[in-house]
Design goal:
binds adenosine-5'-[phenylalaninyl-phosphate], binds magnesium ion, mitochondrion, nucleotide-binding, aa-tRNA-synth_II
C-alpha cells in the first residue's frame, strides 16, 4: 500500500494530454479529466463534421481571392501563459488570466483560451515567405474556457484566426505614393470582386465610425494605411460572412419558398483587444437579434517586433472567429452538446462540403432539480463559490447529461445575515431517456461534492 500511495501521489502530480505528460501544481491546476478527454477530438479537422465543414468552407473562400493564406490546423492545445497572454500584451491583472476563467495545468502552462495564442509563432513562420509583399495565415483549433452551462456554451469550442501583413515600402520620390499602398488597394479590389459575385447582398452600417481615444490608430501607421488596411480586413470578413449566410439563405429559399430576404444586415462596432489597434467586432442581424461573430483589428507593432520584424517594416491585420455558433446556425443544431455527440444518428447526417439542416432524431424530456444552500457563515460573500467552479463540479459529475444550469434564487436572511443561493439544473440526455433514479444519483453526488468542497449547508 505504501507503493500504491506513492504511485497515486506521483500520478496526481502529472497530467497527460495528447500523449505528453505535464507537471501539475495543487495550488493552480484546475484542468479536469472530463476536459482532458476532449483535447484530442479535433472536430475542426473532421471533414464530415459541421465544425470541420465550416472551417473548410471559410479557408476555401478566403483563398479563392488570391491564395495568400497558409493554414496551420494542428497546434497542440497546451500553450504557455507567455503565448496566450504576455506576447499579446495582456495586462498582468486581466480577468481572462484568472483561474476562474481559464484551465491551468501549472503556473506557466494552460489550455489556450483563443487561437491568438499562436499568432506570434505564425508571424515568425511566415516572415520569410517567398512573396515578401504580402503574407498571410489561418489557424484553426480547439480553445478552452471555464464558463456557464447552457445550449450555446461548452467548455471547448473552436476558433479560426486569420492574419495578414504587407511589407512597407518608401516612396521613391516625393510625388509618388509608396508601392505597398498600391498593392493593398489592389488586394482590396480582389476581395471586392469576390464579394460582388455573391448573390446575397450585405448592407453594412456606417463603416466610418471615427477612431477615438478608446480605439486609437497606431502612431507608426499613416491615416491612409489605417484606412486601406481596415478596408481590406473588413471586406475579407464580410466575404466570409456572405459566403456562410449565402449558403444558408439559398438553402432556406430552396426549402421554404421565396419570401426569405436576400439581404443581410451587418454592423461594425468598436472593440478593444490588447494586441490590435484600432479594433472592431462584426455583428450580423439574424432571426431578430445581433449575433457577434468575430473580433479583429490592425496588429500592434509590438507583436510584430516580438516576432522578429524590423521596426516599421510591416503593417497588417488579424481576426478571430468562433466556429461553433456559426456551425450551429448553419446546420440548425439546437444544442451545442450535439457537436460532441458520437451518436450515429448525428454524425451520419453530415457530409464533406455540404450544408444541410440537422433533423432532430428524438427529443428526450429533461428533469429539473434544484440545489439550494446556505453559504458558510464566516464568509458570506457569494464569490467564495465562483459560479464557474460550481459549473465545473456539475460538469465533472454529470458530463453531457446536463443541459443547463441557472441561478434561480439568491437572498440574504434579514436576521442572520446568511446568504442562500439556489441553482436549477436541467438533466437531459440527447440520446436517451434518463430514469429518475439516475438523475437522483447524479443530483446527490453534486450536493455531496458541494458540501465537501465548500462546506455549504444544503437547504
Ligand atoms: C477572442 O478570442 C480574440 N482572440 C479574437 C481576436 C483575434 C481579436 C485577433 C483580434 C485579433 P472573443 O473572446 O471575443 O475574442 O472571441 C472571438 C469569437 O469567438 C467571438 O466573437 C465568438 O464568435 C466566439 N466565442 C467567444 N466565446 C465563445 C463561447 N463561449 N462559445 C462559443 N463561441 C465563442
Ligand atoms: Mg467578444
Amino acid at each position: 500500500t505504501g507503493f500504491r500511495r506513492l504511485y497515486s501521489t506521483l500520478k496526481a502530480q502529472h497530467v497527460e494530454i495528447n500523449g505528453t505528460s505535464y507537471k501539475t501544481n495543487s495550488k493552480i491546476t484546475n484542468v479536469t479529466d472530463s476536459i482532458i478527454k476532449l483535447t484530442g477530438k479535433s472536430l475542426h479537422l473532421k471533414e464530415s463534421h459541421p465544425v470541420g465543414i465550416l472551417r473548410d468552407l471559410i479557408e476555401k473562400k478566403l483563398n479563392s481571392v488570391d491564395n495568400a493564406f497558409k493554414t496551420f490546423n494542428n497546434f497542440e492545445p497546451v500553450v504557455t501563459t507567455m503565448e496566450n497572454f504576455d506576447s499579446l500584451g495582456f495586462p498582468k491583472d486581466h480577468p481572462g488570466r484568472s483561474t476562474s476563467d481559464t484551465y491551468y495545468i501549472n503556473e506557466t502552462q494552460l489550455l489556450r483560451t483563443h487561437t491568438s495564442a499562436h499568432e506570434l509563432e505564425c508571424f515568425q513562420k511566415i516572415k520569410n515567405n517567398a512573396d515578401n509583399n504580402r503574407s498571410a495565415f489561418l489557424i484553426s483549433a480547439d480553445v478552452y474556457r471555464r464558463d456557464e452551462i447552457d445550449k450555446t456554451h461548452y467548455p471547448v469550442f473552436h476558433q479560426m484566426e486569420g492574419a495578414t501583413v504587407w511589407k512597407r515600402t518608401k516612396a521613391s520620390d516625393g510625388s509618388r505614393e509608396p508601392a505597398h499602398l498600391a498593392k493593398i488597394r489592389n488586394d482590396i479590389k480582389l476581395v471586392e470582386n469576390q464579394l460582388n459575385k455573391e448573390n446575397v447582398k450585405i448592407t453594412v452600417n456606417d463603416d466610418t465610425i471615427p477612431l477615438s481615444e478608446d480605439n486609437p490608430k497606431q502612431e507608426y501607421m499613416s491615416d491612409l494605411e489605417v484606412d486601406l488596411c481596415s478596408q481590406h480586413l473588413k471586406r475579407s470578413i464580410e466575404l466570409i460572412v456572405s459566403e456562410v449566410f449565402n449558403k444558408k439563405i439559398s438553402s432556406m429559399i430552396e426549402n421554404k419558398g421565396n419570401d426569405i430576404p436576400k439581404n443581410l444586415k451587418v454592423r461594425w462596432i468598436n472593440a478593444y483587444f490588447p494586441w490590435t489597434a484600432p479594433s472592431w467586432e462584426i455583428e450580423v442581424w439574424w432571426q431578430g437579434e445581433w449575433l457577434e461573430l468575430c473580433g479583429c483589428g490592425l496588429i500592434r507593432q509590438d507583436v510584430l517586433l516580438k516576432a522578429g520584424y524590423r521596426p516599421s517594416e510591416t503593417v497588417g491585420w488579424a481576426f478571430g472567429l468562433g466556429l461553433d455558433r456559426i456551425a450551429m446556425l448553419l446546420f440548425e443544431i439546437p444544442d451545442i452538446r450535439l457537436l460532441w455527440s458520437s451518436d450515429e444518428r448525428f454524425s451520419t447526417q453530415f457530409s464533406k462540403g455540404s450544408i444541410t439542416s440537422f433533423k432532430p432524431y428524438s427529443k428526450h424530456p429533461g428533469s429539473f432539480r434544484d440545489v439550494a444552500f446556505w453559504l458558510p457563515k464566516d464568509k458570506p460573500d457569494v464569490h467564495q463559490v465562483h459560479e464557474n467552479d460550481l459549473m465545473e463540479i456539475i460538469r465533472n459529475i454529470a458530463g453531457d447529461l446536463v443541459e443547463s444550469v441557472k441561478l434561480v434564487d439568491s437572498f440574504t436572511h434579514p436576521k442572520t445575515g446568511r446568504k442562500s443561493i439556489c441553482y436549477r439544473i436541467n438533466y437531459q440526455s440527447m440520446d436517451r431517456n434518463l430514469t429518475n433514479a439516475e438523475v437522483n444519483a447524479l443530483q446527490n453526488m453534486v450536493c455531496s461534492k458541494l458540501v465537501e468542497e465548500y462546506n455549504v449547508e444544503l437547504r
